[in-house]
Amino acid sequence: MLDKDVVLATLVIYQVLLILIGFWAQRRVSSEQDFFLASRQLGPWVAAVSYSASAASAWTLLGMSGLAFSIGVSSIWLALGAVLGCAFSWWVLAPRIMVASEQQQLLSATEFIALGTSGRQRQYIVSLVSAVILFSFVVYIASQFQGAGNTFASTFNMSSAGSIVLGGAIIVLYTLLGGFWAVSVTDTLQGLLMVMAAIALPVAALTQLGGPLAFWSALASQTSAPYMSLTGNSAGLAAIGMVAGCLAVGLSAIGQPHLVARFMALRDNNALRQGQIIATTWYAVVFFGMYLLGLTGRLLVADLTDAEQVFFAVNAALFPSALGAILLVAVLSAIMSTADSMLLVAGTTVAHDLGITRRFRLRALLVSRGVIAIISVAAIAVAIYIPATIFQRVLFAWVAIGSALGPVILCRALGVAIAPARILPAIGTGFIAAVICYLLPNTPGDIVERTLPFALGTAVLLLRRR
């Protein structure tokens, strides 16, 4: 078991460091562009690692490892889908979004979506996009706070509600102080911790089990045939659907506004080219590392009842020292790196995109910080009073916002001509279809939920009037 005093000391030092970064970043914030996009001065490491850390949140360290622990080898397709989605976003979309953002002086993904529209049409589009963002982010941020609750509860026997409030308060504090600068720098630190965890835990687990060959032999002998199959319990068309559904998880990355913001904030082409390599490598290391951790956990902590606790269980078994405490901090890093980015986008949405500051003659930074606080309270309430697994909640929010906004962002980035009148119905179709598919029974690999809403939104967007 981990020494609780060591863990507590490590957590306190880490939280203090994040708050100090917030105070440092506050000195660099004097305008909306500073607060929302760090004056478009992000270098490759900060842009790439903060992008990756804010995209691959608690659902990666806890959800991905838990999925591999539960269903086995076939979960590799989900990891591969996430890596491919990251690569496509960085190598295909990022260059175009960066150029358009600089040329048009855009500060948000919402402005990118609404390009070429005006008057009431633009107002309706911005309002719908903002509603989708705020709703989905409350659900997503709630999952991050719930992950914080699991971390504290498993370590200190704290109540889940108390730990959710504590973790949320730290995140809100440094986000309010330093805006995009604080979020990006802290996300970079958190992303590096996540990489360390994704390497150290699987390597230690393999070593404990006698090496890769001994591990694989033991896994094959102690688990069922479906657990060792690349298609799980599926066969024929169901197997194809399972694989395609898992691979499609990266599709929704296209429509995530907190990720698009990293492309808009890139400093120059050199930062872009280096960021492409860094982000793709980070994704591969973390996702496949957590995949391997889940499989090794099946042998090391086979009696585990909650699959999403495999990270904690293996960490406590192999690293009952200061290193284990640091790896535990990596989970909090995963939680914070997504929650802070989404909170910042929520602030941008209300203060800048909806024009609240212009209508009521309020300061943009003041309004944004107020929204961040309100969204945090709402997310904490959802996490406490509407329980769900981290994996389920994240995938719903991820697919909903990706299906609503992804088709428009994709077409704009690729230079595909779209009729302004089709944007509003496309966004509505993608979002409503995502909600309906989430409520329907699961399909193999959830292929319907992860592909159909995005496809329907794209089809509506590209329809031509006769």
Describe this structure in words.
There is one protein chain. This protein is mainly alpha-helical. The chain has one domain: Sodium/glucose cotransporter (Up-down Bundle), CATH 1.20.1730.10. The protein contains 20 helices and no strands. It has helices at about 5-25, 30-35, 45-55, 60-70, 75-105, 110-115, 120-155, 160-210, 210-220, 225-230, 235-245, 255-265, 270-300, 310-320, 320-355, 355-360, 365-385, 390-415, 420-440, 445-460. α1 (about 5-25) crosses α8. The protein is globular. The relative contact order is 0.20. The model has no long low-confidence stretch (mean pLDDT about 85).
Write a brief caption for the model.
By secondary structure, this protein is mostly helical. The chain is built from 20 helices and no strands.
List SSEs in N-to-C order. HHHHHHHHHHHHHHHHHHHH
CA-CA gap between termini? 68 Å
Q: Label the CATH architecture.
A: Up-down Bundle
Radius of gyration: 21 Å
Round the mean pLDDT to the nearest integer and report it. 83
Q: How much β-strand is present in the residues?
A: under 5%
* Overall 3D shape: globular
And the CATH topology?
A: Sodium/glucose cotransporter
What is the count of DSSP helices, taking H or I runs of 4+ residues? Answer: 20
